[in-house]
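STRUCTURE:
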């Protein structure tokens, strides 16, 4: 079976991230791993991710490209999906 990794780069997105991670948990076919890339956040982004069971990767270089790249490098799935913290994927 194909494995799926979801990468979510984040900077100070704790509130939005909680909703996104809840939607991922409700998927008909859940991801095999969810990686939240903490892009030097100063809010509860990392704690929110860990509380939802996501793996947290830290990327100190600010910006979407370094954060996304760090997540892709950490992913182990056959397929990598990238979401933003404000994404709310449908269950299917």
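SEQUENCE:
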């Amino acid at each position: 079976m194909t494995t799926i990794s979801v990468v979510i780069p984040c900077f100070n997105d704790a509130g939005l991230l909680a909703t996104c991670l809840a939607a991922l948990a409700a998927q008909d076919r859940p991801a095999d791993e969810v990686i939240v890339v903490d892009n030097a956040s100063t809010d509860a982004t990392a704690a929110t991710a860990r509380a939802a069971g996501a793996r947290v990767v830290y990327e100190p270089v600010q910006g979407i490209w370094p954060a996304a790249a760090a997540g892709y490098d950490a992913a182990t799935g056959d397929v990598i999906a990238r979401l933003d913290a404000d994404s709310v994927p449908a269950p299917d």
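REMARK: The radius of gyration is 12 Å.
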